[in-house]
Amino acid sequence: MFFTILICKILRFLGGLLGRGSSWPGKIALKLFPDILSYLKYPDTVIAVTGSNGKTSTVEMIAHVLKEGGLKVAYNKEGSNQTEGVTTFLLNDATLGGRIKSDAVLLESDERYMRRSFRFFHPRYLIITNLYRDQMTRNGHPEWIYDIIERGIHDDMTLVLNADDPLVSKFGAGREGTLYFGADHLDCDTSVNDSIYDDGKYCPICKKPMEYEYYHYNHIGKYRCTSCGFARPDTRWSLTGTDLENGNITINGKYKIPLTFNGIYHCYNTLAAFAAADLAGISKEKAAEALGGYILKSGRIVDFTLDKCEGRLLLSKHENSISYDRSIDVVVKDPAKVNVMFIVDAISRKYFTSDSSWLWDIDFEKLNTGNIGKIILAGKYCNDLAVRFEAAGIPAGKTEIFETVMEASLYAGNLTDYLYVITCFSDKEKILSLVKRKELS
Amino acid sequence: MKASILYLYYDFMNLYGDNGNVRIMEKRLRDQGFDVEVIRKTITDDDISFEGFDLIYCGSGTESRLFAAAEHLKAFEDGFKSAVAAGTPVLFTGNAWGMLGRSITSHDGKKTGGLGLFGFDVREEIKQRFTGDAVESAKGFDKQFIGFINKCDVIDGFDGYMFKVEKTIGQIPYAQDGVRKDNLFGISLIGPVLVKNPFFAEYLVRLIDERHGVTYREERYEHEEKGYRMTLKALTE
Questions:
Q1: Which of B15, B23, B192 is opposite residue A141, by nearest beta carbon?
Q2: Claim to verify: residue A278 and residue A335 sit in the same structural domain
Q3: B198-212 and B222-236 are packed helices; what angle lies between their axes, rounded to 10 degrees?
Q4: Is residue A296 part of a domain?
Q5: What is the mean pLDDT of chain A?
Q6: How far off is chain A from B161, nearest CA to CA, in Å?
Q7: Is A197 an interface residue toward B (CB < 8 Å)?
Q8: In CATH, what number is assigned to the domain containing residue B203?
Q9: Which of the four, A247, A330, A362, B128, has the lowest number of CB atoms within 10 Å?
Q10: Are B12 and A202 inside 8 Å of each other by CB?
Q11: How far apart are CA B129 and CA A116, in angstroms?
């Protein structure tokens, strides 16, 4: 073990000098000592976070709160969330004798790979943020991922679940000691789900229809199966108020937290971080104070100037319709007249795929509102976007179609209204390399 | 002049943006001068009639939903078979065409009967999923079908396939795919297959026109055509 940890630390150091990724030292360590993670001595607080959306942001916020609370924290801040990346950061934090030096370990765990890491050690708490239609070219579908996650859950782990997502709360059905977080009835709730599809319409257990008292967004809300009794469980940590206009939330009716980003998904991430801090022994007052106004380093928002216009990039995820839906919500709620650009140039950074089916799950229909000026469709998949926008009833004169981001940017830069750009990690640099970034305030 | 589409399990089997197929057919049929009506039926309905439709469509679902839909559809087997025998255009995409065979066995060994239109049995895997892009060909079509497959079905010992899988990128073990009987088509490609393959949408529209005794009205679908050419090039280069 001594030798393997030493090698991993040296490779990590050399990798840092050479600018290599964070996975390969762990990969080599696992070749030398395949079950080394079983032999490490972990601190009492080991928290893993998995789910479709919000893992990176939630882990980053938990790390921030725990540090503010005086704990030394180890976590995969580079976001490499597969077993090799986890091995790298754990061994890097360990003494040569195998004791983790930090007071708390945080793991951002890939949904598909967490069970591999958890063969060797078990986190005390597993937080599951949500299970959406996400990267289905590799993930299959949410139920497929549910089954994979379930195989990684062990009896000695305490589940901390989003009560408002029925597929997530199913993990806790019949499992004693499960803890839940979620939102109470909020001002922004709706009584109907008018998204393109509704993954909460049928019970994840018996497949019979479910009824919702209210929806926070998409299929996230307060539900109850009309047949088997499965229902949203009570929560230990509750979002009791959101004032998204002024950018603050209230947790458990008492802890008011000003937010820098005011999307509903950010409220959930903040709530999950609050729950984790509470479980790690940080006082609720301290947690609320530390989370207040925190600006994410892994921020999904970039403000910029592009020639004659000011704008904001809302980083979303290709192959994840809910992520796009939430960004579209931000755009249509802007009281000013705005233009919006969608870039789908590379669905994956690694390979070409023909699969643009996820575009038909996104609620582009919402863009049929008065505040939307031009809609600019850019990238290799601009034709797929154009067909989808036509089906959404967007008048042809409103859309401009460009095969390259450069052409689209030249066009957009000559418009004076505010510009939102919605795209994914795989395409973001194509626009950010053409704009002048501004500091977020 | 009215055209009716029956969208089966519209909210239950719509996993991969499959709704796009119905939406694109609505538009294309309107372009032909039809008043288009879409009738949506689902798992809670006990009154499904297949008579008088110009197109019957069903898309992909999770494995547990496919199983539930197959059990549900079995109650309407006779009506469905009559519609197929009458030459109604029918399209089942993704894993939905698994319901057209003799049986489906889930990964945990549960078995349910299919509609029995074809002599195959579907067995679902749990450990591996077959995902990737595919280029397929079929007799009677001079263009290749393109799209994505995302399922975990294995079909053993069946030789009545419709499509030849010419090329795959990813983890696809299939050399052949899908079925055809009269105007019923089953294909494993997911999502808006008729958007991705505009020639196939046109084929179905011509079929519907013909059944109404109407001459096909030539229309241009520029973005679908460009998208098809771009994707075919990228997949076959």
A1: B15
A2: no
A3: 130
A4: no
A5: 92
A6: 23
A7: yes
A8: 3.40.50.880
A9: B128
A10: yes
A11: 18
Residue A62 belongs to a domain: yes
Question: Looking at the 3D structure of chain B, how many domains does it have?
Answer: 1
Question: What is the C-alpha to C-alpha distance for residues A98 and B218, in angstroms, rounded to an integer?
Answer: 73
Q: Are residues A237 and A318 in the same domain?
A: no
Which two three-digit tokens encode residue B69?
A: 């839909």
Domain boundary pick from A270, A291, A312 = A291
Whether residue A134 is contained in a domain is answered as: yes
Amino acid occupying residue A114: M
The alpha-carbon gap from B33 to the nearest alpha carbon of chain A, in Å, equals: 17
How many residues appear in chain A?
441
Range of the domain at A305: 301-438
Instruction: State yes or no: pLDDT of A103 exceeds 60.
Output: yes
> Could you report the per-residue pLDDT of B52-73, keeping only the tens digit for each?
999 999 999 999 999 999 999 9
The shortest C-alpha distance from A357 to chain B (Å) reads 5
For residue A409, give every residue at least 6 positions away whose Cβ sits within 8 Å of its Cβ, in sequence order, or none.
A306, A431, A434, A435
Count of structural domains, chain A: 2
Give the whole-angstrom CA distance, residue A270 versus residue A177. 22
Residue A157 sits in the same domain as residue A18: yes
> Quick one: A141 and A276 in the same domain?
yes
Q: Are A9 and A139 within one domain?
A: yes
Q: Which residue of B has its CA nearest to A209?
A: B44
What ipTM does this complex have? 0.96
Nearest residue of chain B to residue A132 (CA atoms) = B15
pLDDT tens figures, B124-160: 988 889 999 999 999 999 999 999 999 999 998 899 9
**Which residue among A137, A207, A384 places its CB closest to the CB of B150?**
A137
Subunit contact B62:A141, Cβ cutoff 8 A: yes
Q: Which of A247, A268, A291 lies at the terminal end of a domain, its last residue? A: A291
Q: Do A391 and B24 touch (CB under 8 A)?
A: yes
Co-location of A322 and A384 in the same domain: yes
Q: What is the spatial distance between Cα A324 and Cα A316, in angstroms, rounded to a whole number?
A: 6
Q: Cβ atoms within 10 A of the Cβ of A161, count?
A: 27
Which residues does chain B have within 8 Å of residue A380's beta carbon, measured at their own beta carbons?
A: 230
> What's the mean pLDDT when you consider all of chain B?
96
**Inter-chain touch B17–A198, beta carbons under 8 Å:** no
Cβ of residue A226 closer than 8 Å to a chain B Cβ: no
